[in-house]
Prior knowledge:
heterotrimer, A: 394 residues, 7-stranded parallel β-sheet, 10 helices, elongated, C: 622 residues, alpha+beta, 8-stranded mixed β-sheet, 24 helices, 28 strands, 25% strand, globular
Amino acid sequence: MTDGxxxxxxxxxxxxxxxxxxxxxxxxxxxxxxMDDFNIKYSSNEKVVxxxxxxxxxxxxxxxxxxxxxxxxxxxxxxxxxxxxxxxxKLIAQIVTDQDVAAKVESVDVGNFKKPRYMFFAxxxxxxxxxxxxxxxxxxxxASDINKLVIEDLPLTHQIxxxxxxxxxxxxxxxYRPDFSGFLWTTILCLDNRNPTIERDYHPQxxxxxxxxxxxxxxxxxxxGKVIEYSPRFDQKDLLVKILDRKIMxxxxxxxxxxxxxxFGRGIKESPEENVKLIEQLASELDAEIGxxxxxxxxxxxxNQTIDxxxxxxxxxxxxxxxxxxxxxxxxxxxSGAIQHLTGxxxxxxxxxxxxxxxxxxxxECDMFIKGKMEDVLPLLIENLKxxxxxxxx
Amino acid sequence: MLTPLNIAVIVKLEPDFSEGxxxxxxxGTLNRAETKNILGPHSALAAxxxxxxxxxxxxxxxxxxxxxxxxxxxxxxxQQISDADETYLFSDRIxxxxxxxxxxxxxxxxxxxxxxxMDLVFSGHRASDGETGQVGxxxxxxxxxxxxxxxxxxxxxxxxxxxxxxxxxxxQGFYDIVExxxxxxxxxxxxxxxxxxxxxTASQRLACEKYKKEANxxxxxxxxxxxxxxxxxxxxxxxxxxLAGSPTIVFKVEKIPKGKAGRQAEVIDGSSKEExxxxxxxLRQALSTMVIK
Amino acid sequence: xxKYDVVIVGGGSSGLAALKQLSNRGKQAILLESGSKVxxxxxxxxxxxxxxxxxxxxxxxxxxYENFLSDAPVERKITKYILHSTSKDKVFSxxxxxxxxxxxxxGYSVLMNKLNKxxxxxANESAQKYGGGIIPGVHVRDIKWDGDKTIIYTDELEEIQxxxxxxxxxxxxxxxxxxxxxxxxxxxELYQGVKVVVKLPEDIINERFGISxxxxxxxxxxxxxxxxxxxxxxxxxxQNTLSVGGVYHLDSLLENPVAPYEMINALLKNPMISxxxxxxxxxxxxxxxxxxxxxxxxxxxxxxxxxxxWQETRDAILSSSGRDRLIKSGKYASEDEIRTQxxxxxTQMVDKYGVTxxxxxxxxxxxxxxxxxxxxxRMKNPFIKNVxxxxxxxxxxxxxxxxxxxxNVGIDDGARAANAIxxxxxxxxxxxxxxxxxxxxxxxxxxxxxxxxxxxxxxLKIFLVAAKDIPKDILxxxxxxxxxxxxxxxxxxxxxxxxxxxxxxxxxxxxxxxxTYVKVPMELADRLGEKITSSYTLTIPSIAxxxxxxxxxxxxxxxxxxxxxxxxxxxxMVTLCPTRCYxxxxxxxxxxxxxxxxxxxxxxxxxxxxxxxxKGITYQYG
Lengths: 394, 293, 622
């Protein structure tokens, strides 16, 4: 591989009906951080290039630049309104190997540009598949579900890659992914074969990134960048794939987006309406979504219609026959901790339980157990949260 | 005369993670030697998706897997689920260690070796170990098939040679979408974990029972339906498969530093105001730390 | 709309027998069962009888299934039948084997899940030849008549048209309710049966009950074990498990509510039963919490795996088929080798992981069901239009004293319904009245109907002979007259004849009383009984643990609605529901559906339905 063959970090954005999916900005911010360090370390000037595909999405470009993109390559076309795998894959592959685009990215003639050095995708339903097919088309390596990234010069001796010789792989992207057990980090590398018998370049080094692991920074309105418009070419055959219908399953309840979940169970029974109001207040203080334990979804407690239809629904049930959640903070109010419920929330980072009965099973699955009735404990807790928030903001 | 639908399913041998069957090493890594291997649950679901076509359309089904010699047992299992007509084991030491690109190349070659041109290929959403979910789409790409992922429902129009599928698109932190797509065959479908084949007339259900019985009978004599291929027989390009054809390697494995400590609950008196202050401080601390999933 | 000649609702032994018989007659029929597999919701005590009555005839299971005797997975052939009277630690035993053998070809102990699956395989294979078969996972929600069409609506499939319907959907028959064919059974017409299956290796069962692997024992219990209720307990030997349970009049339970799991526990704690069920049970050591989490998990998984291996090897070495299987597999060359391996596993378990072997019992499944009392509750005309009711759905079953027969009645009914329909199809006359009447007449001819209506004097004689050594003064003044009347053949024939004219129902309160089931047996035990001591204390699982072991597929839609939340009956349901689905909040009875085993105890004052297809309880043993 010669210098100049592989340059820049291309990040594939995701948008839905003209709105950016949050992970797009998270990826951009991390990309910015990595490339800033990279450019300093290697005295270079490689770019973060955001790929934006869609229909009538031009306005988003500004937001992308303000969050760290140096360049936005924009492909705006009605046929791109929704993701169709073959069309998107071919288009992305075309764009990232396009030498004209590369020249415009750098405003300098780098004649031998082949492919990006690095590529990022989102690890969601869309990105995981697009990343796979794009990398198959680009004939290079992909690591999925990544939550930590480091760029290093790595010394490596590998039977296949280096034919057993100790070599140094410069500017290698270390891609960390948590394994299935949750205990271990596996680091994946995408490396050229420098073994003379099977010599080949493998670029871009690509990965799909887990939503929610990287922080999004505030938009920097002072940042400027380039927008390159790209006119897509489509194969007629590929346009035969038709999207007939799209239904938004707006589950009112998006547990995945929340850092905190507050759940309640039959412990509310003594004064159901007052207790639910307290729980709503607590949830509001913590920006939390509200869940319930399974028995409540069968509506065993008579309560006013509004609360009944808002909360006592299967969509809010957390448990083995409902949703499984793993927020940073899980608060179980008046829940005894049946096995079915525990299965649904035991992967939460920090668990707080409030229950008058010290013998309830939930005590074994929580980090902090407040012994007391919710009518007494919740008001105290809410008051303290309000007070401490003021302190932080002050 | 309509040609019957020709379907392939690619499946994977995976460790059995259930308690009583799985073994872990002292350092927390999976002890593969002591853990039984089974047909991966997502692969099993893909096989049941193929079974739907067997019942509805009388499809011809082939199952293939890349694995060690003892992977033939999962082919038997998959045959029992799908009433497959043929099973294929692609086995050779040179295949081992391949990453997803190398595996996809091998599977593409293997599918070409199967009888007839494929109309539909099914795979699971991901494996329960590796869990990348990449092999499906990459194999689809190498085959040149339209790829549909997260499919929760599908129907085939055997005359028009098209597939209509419902897909579940989860954008994480956004809402979920159910998308209905129509694509001309051939198509590669990765089945969503929530998929369940539904037969909603009495006659379909009866046909189901009939094919289930045939599946059981076939699975009893599964060796009769099994073909085994090594690298040479497959004619795979050695530069594109196995370790040689794998861009990625596992560099290292280490403990995630902030592992979840075993939960030992601290009990707080709910009536104490001082304690409550401390609780809130602890909650704030919990919220501010980085998520390591 | 798809059309089938016959639709059978309910895949219990009655419905399956009907399906098989229709195939025997070359007729097309489909069977709809709500469980995900046939047999998954079946529960039985249970013993399956085949009878050879002197007069009248019956369709025995081996008549309907020609390969029953050679292939059916029954448990053991009962060769000993003993009635025990209990009072604390004293037991008085009466050998009633001759009563059990009266007019019987055989009685096999059975586990319903296994046996119904076999019935289903046979019936399905035959039915498929005639364009029919079994469809599991389907719940029938309605039947409508439109002109001469009968249309069946289900939760899962498109509508189905049928020429005739057989309703074999059990004691809580929704078809009976939907069609208005009969009212729900009242508590005085019902028993609540509750059971646990206990694991015990085959050889130990043989030794303990004094039988060979091909033989079985049935032990019945009355006295203080019933906690003052009318009914009794039983222990039946299966291949390598025991069925331990009780059957009690529901009105007796309503009068004096005791939770079903407490009724079982009373049985289990009886010293004779405790001694019957005991075994060597491995108990895990508490894992050192100071170890790292990974190490704790590793130890836990390793211990579980080791215990599993030990149990599997032990179960195999203690069973003749197990030994053969292991040796044939080539894994072991001889029984000694197996024993050595077992011993080594045990040493590992004990020495390496600190597992201890304690005396206790191993309970594997808790179940309950309602049983209709055929004497009181059977439908006089078990049909409506072209829907025929069989078995429990028709309220038919024979329960008097130690005579407990439900499965064989259901099978006989099923065969008769099948025949009636087959005849009608052949004559091309499916007019509702003639079909229904033909079926009804056929049932009247069944020996079982006779047994539900009248006392059999010859059966009675056996009882009296078995009881001849009991001192007369124990049987209270209430029975004195009866004893005199029964003392000679002639007198007995006269009295029985007279009683049968009077009507069974009039006599029953006398016979089925606390006197008969509790007081008299207790006195017998106190005075004549043997003392039995139990050598250990049982670890009885809590009801939460018992429920936790059951397999439920939760149906999001609630299937039962409480109609009268403040009634006395519903308040009693809080105690009488076998899986504690009811609780009282603010003086109103609330239901939680998680854990409902669909027994129907609460059905009288609820809008009661079964769960939808594939949902609800799935038993492993049944």
